[in-house]
Sequence to fold (1380 residues):
Amino acid sequence: MSQTPLKTKKPFFLRFKDERILLILFALMLAFPFVMNLITGSGLNDGITKFWQGQLIIFFIMAVFAMSYDLLIGFGGILSFGHAASFGGGAYTFALLMEHWAPNFIGKYRILIGSLDITEGIVLLIVFLAVVLVSILIGLLFSATSIRLKGAYFAMLTLALGTAMFILVKATDFHEWTGADEGLHGVYVPDWINPTQNRLTIYLISLVFLVVCYLVMKRMVNSPTGRVIIANRENEDRMRMIGYNPVLYRTIAFVSASFFAGLAGALYSIWNTSATPTMVSAVTTVNALIMTILGGMGTLVGPILGAAIMQTISQFFYTWFGARWPLVFGVLFILIVMFLPYGIIGTWRMKRNDIKGGWQKLLRLLSKKEDL
Amino acid sequence: MKPENKKRLMIFIWSLVGVGVVAGLYLYAGKEPFIRTTLSGLTLGSLFFMVAAGLTLIFGLMDVLNFAHGAMFMLGAYMGWQLYTNPTFIFGMLPALLAFSTGIMMTSVIKPYLIRWEISSKWQNFLPKAAYFLALVIGVVAFWGFDILQLANTAMVAATTTTAGNPLAEISAQEPFVQFWYRPLLLLLSGLLVAFASSKPGVKTEFAPLDEMKSKLVLPIVLFGLTILSIIIRESAPVAILLMNGNWRFVISIIVAIAFGFLFGAIVEITLIRPLYVRSFFIVLMTLGLSFVIQELVQLLWDPLAYQMVRPPLFAQPGKAANLMEWLRNGSSTIDVFGVTFPTYRLFVILLGVVMFVFITLLMTKTRLGMIIRAGVQDPQMVEALGINVKRVFTFVFALGVAMAALGGIGAGPFLPIQPAMGEQYQMQGFITVVIGGMGSYVGAFVGAFLLGMGRAFGDYFALKLSLSPAIAEASTVIIMIIVLLIRPQGIFGKKE
Amino acid sequence: MTEDILLEARNLTKAFGGLVAVDDVSIKIRKKTMHAIIGPNGAGKTTLFNLLSGVLPPTKGEVYYKGEEITKLPPYKRAHLGIGRTFQITNIFPNLSVMENVRLAAQAKGKDNFKLLRRADDFQQYIDKAEEIIEVVSLKGKELFLARDLAHGEKRKLELGIMLACDPELLLFDEPTAGMSSEQVPELIDIITNIVHNGDRTAILVEHRMDMVMSISDIITVMNQGRILAEGSPGEIASNPQVQIAYLGDLYGELA
Amino acid sequence: MSDHNQNDDILIIDNIHTFIGQFHILEGVSVRVPRGSITVLLGRNGAGKTTTLKSVLGLTPPREGKVIFDGMEIQGKRAFNVANLGIGYVPEHRAIFRALSVMENLKLAERQKGDFNRNADFIFHLFPDLKRLYKLPGNHLSGGQQQMLAVARALVPDNKLLLIDEPSEGLAPILIQQMMDAIRELSQKTTILLVEQNFIMASQLAKRYTIIDDGQSVHDGLMQDLVNDQDLIHQYLGASIKTRKELEKNHETRK
Fold:
């Protein structure tokens, strides 16, 4: 999966050509609630339309989380079992601030521009800044451990650090703050983005969030820095000899992955107005891992597809196989690991040249330019 | 000689620190709490070791992080518990399993003849695939209409309703022989087909000498005999076992758990792990998926409930024994250790861990197999070049590791709730143990396990005393790990790369 | 005279456990020379190389570059100073394209390594430089191949290209022709001499092909069992009986 | 190839091609090893000598070509099967098992119980040092002792053929002499295929040679012919190596 450098700079509009499928998908997703509304007749904010918006919101957010994990594992070549710490860290930062700080602040102060009350906006902004800060710190913490440790030891330490985070949020000592085992529920969220009252808003926000994150990550992967991170994955010793400091670039990979994961966590926290210990647990990391593997490591579209598959499977397998659906899913996962190790997108991309070649041959045959 | 001296100095300093910490704890906590906490630390350490031993062995030789180890620990507990409470399920499934293995074990017998078969490469490709497919179909047909869930239910019912009075109260009927007879036959056939496929008929580059046929026939014949036996005793054996003295029943449970773990490990290694050695990262993912599957399968068979296994009579009598002799005579549930009342079963768990350590040490240092394993850790290629089938050694080590996890499971059975997630926590602790001790070192795993057990126990003690949450105790193991890794990134007994 | 010296090692020693691979070696590399290090297998050439390029820390001794001590500098900082090296085992980025392999090296010394949100392809100067170098190492037309799909000889050329893109002043070649067939060697020799002489660069070369060493190097250092056995011009070395014996095997005593 | 009878060859390597990963390492190597003598593979670093030995053993199985040992095709078979046919292997860099004691290293090489006891006298006769070091762990041995152990390990079972890879590498002169004597004595008992860079050692030991260059066997014949063939030596074994006689002459004049 190499990034082939293109010498000629493409005109702006042509750049969208590569992304046309995604553009179409984006448009479809944008239109989805309205179309559903037309077809089913139920209101935008209730019934089946609302339900499916909810499903898609989870998908959008988890896709960003999975992509951020892929940034680490697929592009950076760093196997971390503690990525949920960033996701949960973002969620808890958001929930804690919104629960314990924001209502007080909003109760006491009003910030007006003219007659426009932007207090809630400012509060959200500050909270999100805090989320970003916390997730960057978590990324730094994890990358600091990678300086001394290698391979399986490093993977295990990330697992342990993740667990430490999990234990921390579960600790009863901070019950009044974090809600310990139950987590924080019914977190205060401004009305205009409240998922029960204004689902469409949060739907659109998550959709835009996904698209923006995808574009930014794609750009990052193709940026000078991103290229260095990828090369770092390939051959760290050689990078050192060329004149790059691998530790620095590993840190950048960690911090940026953590940054996106933290944002996704915070958004998830808005979506279900809660932050629970499960979001920090290893299960969440494993979910991201599974999504990435399913779709294909080292591609950004892969994790999105993986998230979509996971979301669909968890919806339909339940109705098909009952409560024991993960059994079927587990078998499926093992089969994919055994027979499609590069994931769906990865395998497809590897074969794509063959497919292309096949098509060209077919066309040649049809146009009778070649006698075969 | 300078590094030697430095090493000795370090060991001396660390022993001093260790003694200091122990003395400090003793003075701080007082005699009785200290002994009590130490004993629970030992119990935990023993459990951690039983999980970590297999993990470290597997990692050392094969570089495989087995994320399904906790699930295998749990399976061991379930199997032992099954046999102990109501073995109907185990004996009901046994003929099928044995018949299938008999078929597979015929591989080495038929292989020398099959590879000499003159067939075109097209058939060489096609025949194994067809055989595998046919084996699958026959396997499905063999189980068609076989109510496994009902069979599994028997133990569940027994666990929830039977009282000590009548162990046979819930023994339930199995499928009558007239309905059952053809199932083992079909499975034998299915196994034979797998053997046919895996011996690669007609492939000339395969190698199998024609001599030594006698020794190759032993295993299939024994297995076949066992199959017949298992069909005959299918209905009577559960009754016999349930009427047995509880202590002996427990011993048999342990043996069954070990045997099951070994067999299961071997099957997993051969079918799932072996094809992935070239892409080792995917083994981690595969074992993750496997742990998923195992847990769900167990929940399917025995519902997502927690069961309490009855303690064997040797540990069940209420009352406190003053010394070991009295305990063995009366079967008391608790015993007096330096003035502290301590459950006897926990003492047994500690003993189990130590016995296991002794066993591994003997295996590794005194036997040829141990030699092969130690050599294989360094250079499997060279071991192969000496004429040793390294693949088979890998299978054996994996199976042994899983068997040890299963032994840990059944050992923990009588004092932990038996539930699908029971392995998860121990797997995590097992990983930490292995990392602390140094991956691949069983001595490290032993030391690390007891260090962690102590850390955990004293963490609990301090959490209680200082009225902190139990989370502090949970975190203590992680903290110990971080400290150890900061000082020695390769673990206590690990070797620098 | 001292300005003439580009790299200097003083009393370098490296021990692995009990084995002393490099034993108290002092060597001076003069500017704009092709300095070859030869010696039988296990003489410590590659270890010396690793000490000079910073891959391994020495047990004892110092390394000076342009008069400044660099003994403790990590390899990536040495690379910034202008020390580049190739590896005995082909050591490239297998899953990246040829272009990307070279482009990354060209980018290393630039100031754009931390631009996260710009397209790498927008930095034309690195692409231009990479193309230029690809031409020099005669890999033109293979820019978009994945590095792992190249033939062995081409991989060695790519390896040279990567090093060259770092714009080094001192080049360390570790057996550049290892594993190449005889027909391919002359081309590679041309490339190497071209790189060194046209760019006014200095080079240290470890090589087994004596004919190649004799024809292209200015100074030859012979190592045996971790020590320097002899140093001098190709002519001197060729007529040095000690060297002959070292190369043929140390059975001197028996012959006498 | 007419100078000896084909049926006398214990090992015939016939045009093998071996890949390691993407690398095409051997591009047609053919070697004949006549029974009961020493054959040496010559060639410069990275020419494919070690890979040839590994391909015989099945550690890097060849993709094309045939390997015939004692009349049986063995290409594609697993290494342990090949070894059990009676091939001993002494790898380069003395790959002894450092975690095992000298005794364990030797015992591990047993193919049948009692192999070691049967051959112990001969082994300790060749390498008396090992008897003294019997209980020491492998990582406490010096380089030369490790090399002796590596050779000794191949002598534990009764092998029909020994593959020995660079026994003189990194050894002090006195040890090289000792190793040479040992190998010469060994050749009385079994056939040996040797890889050796030390030309003098090779020329004194071997009866036949095969030169491998760039993954191809380019030349073979009797050692005594090669010693007198300046051009060939020059072409394949690196530059201005002079023959032993000239060296001796040089030495005389310096005296």
